[in-house]
Amino acid sequence: MHEPAVPHLHAEDPEIAGMVEAEARRQYEKLRLIASENYVSPAVLEAAGSVLTNKYSEGYEGRRYYEGQQVIDPLEALAVRRAQELFGAEHANVQPYSGSPANLAVYLAFLEPGDPVMGLSLPMGGHLTHGWSVSATGKWFRPVRYDVRADTGRVDMDQVRDLALKERPKVIWCGGTAIPRTIDFPAFAEIARETGAVLAADIAHIAGLIAGGAHPSPVGHADVITTTTHKTLRGPRGAMIMSTAEHAKAVDKAVFPGLQGGPHNQTTAAIAVALREAAQPGFAAYARQVVANAVVLAAALRDRGYDLVSGGTDNHLILIDLTKKGIGGKPAAQALDRAGIELNYNAVPFDTRKPFDPSGLRVGTAAITTRGLGEELMPQVAAWMDEVVQAAAKGDESVVERVAAQIRELLASYPMPGWTATP
User: Is the backbone peptide bond immediately before 355 cis, with ω within 30 degrees of 0?
Assistant: First the structure.
């Protein structure tokens, strides 16, 4: 049963209601190891589904283009204040619709078309919006890309500095989508200062770990910080931009009217709820447990002969290279999904396979930690993964079915926020 209950949806559109329940059961019955996903609390779900969705609020607090903002103004101000307090930021904007528009706002705030922008190459773990060729950011600006070292799998900071001195980018991005190691914000900041660049930290994957004290913060190092509000932060699908006071006006102007109209007020409320939850003492314990689970899972996978990019992890994310396992990332991910282990296929650094059929798997521990799974279960998770990957390479579907049943049995003892199984 969905929590909060959705009786009107069942009455008015049983077809959609059935899909909602089916998705909830799917999430309940699977080990959700996609690094960019999590479970939100029932309170976040209630805020996201509230009557706040009825209200248009173009502009900012005290400067709206629609009347009737007596509630929305203090609501958004509260969300902003909670973001500033949680992360220690001088300024916060909670209006971006998602992570990519938030990143695009950075371009609009600090660059002109054709300006050089520097980011981690997508195949090395960067993000599309950090200047990759198929993204608008790679088409409208001149991308300068840095890599990870082949021998360590970690960002080559010497290369970053050499490229920055040579190309003089207006913005340097740090962060990405498949980085299993701690980001060296002070080193990036030093290079940005030396070259006169704006340092933009994309912390979408690690925002919750930063909030919980399980990863160093870019505040005090980066000029501007972007993040989604889901992933490790356990909020709704939205985004925020934080910055120094010096850049507050440019950031706000880039978001509105530069890129979008009215904010989604129901999402703003849900972000505020998630930020309050992240400020509670229990969230710090959660963040530490996310990392502890990832470290143990990585070690268990290594013990089973899996090659891990950089050799392991410092955060929630593990990147597995299947090159020596005789199977590509895509068929392995599909078999694992059938077996109740949900993750995604992913390119690995220096991958020789095509992006839609790469060599790797990306794994994250944020969602299973929310369900309450601890370090003691990570060797079993690794064992299941290994069984399925080996079976998939041989075409043995019986192993897939057996593991799926075992996982359903295990997860029945671990409640899922937002949905309760009924007989």
Answer: no
Neighbours of 259 (CB within 10 A): 18
262 is known to lie in a ligand binding site? no
Which residue in 30, 170, 181, 231 is the catalytic one?
A: 231
Binding residue per annotation — 67? no
Residue 261 annotated as binding? no
88, burial (CB in 10 Å: exposed 0-12, middle 13-18, buried 19+)? exposed
Assess whether 202 carries a catalytic annotation.
yes
Helix, strand and coil content of the chain, in percent to the nearest 5, comes to 50, 15, 35
Structure confidence by residue, pLDDT tens digits, 335-369: 999 999 999 999 999 999 998 999 999 999 999 99
3-class DSSP assignment, residue 332: helix
Out of 237, 253, 302, 338, pick the active-site residue: 237
**Cα→Cα distances 334→316, 317, 338, 339, 342, Å:** 22, 19, 6, 9, 9
User: What are the DSSP calls for 155-215, one per residue?
Assistant: B-HHHHHHHHHHH--SEEEE--SS--S---HHHHHHHHHHHTPEEEEE-TTTHHHHHTTSS
Number of H helices, E strands in the chain: 16, 15
Catalytic residue among 3, 56, 168, 190, which? 56
Instruction: Assess whether 73 carries a catalytic annotation.
Output: no
Q: Is 237 a catalytic residue?
A: yes
Tens-place pLDDT, residues 285-328: 999 999 999 999 999 999 999 999 999 999 999 999 999 999 99
Number of residues assigned to the chain: 423
Tokens describing residue 284: 């710090």
246 is in an annotated binding site: yes
Does 244 qualify as catalytic in the annotation? no
User: What's the pTM?
Assistant: 0.97
**Coil/strand/helix, residue 14:** helix
Distance CA 203, CA 36 (A): 12
Could you give all domains of the chain from N- to C-terminal order, each with its CATH number? 47-278 (3.40.640.10), 289-411 (3.90.1150.10)
Q: Is 127 annotated as a binding residue?
A: yes
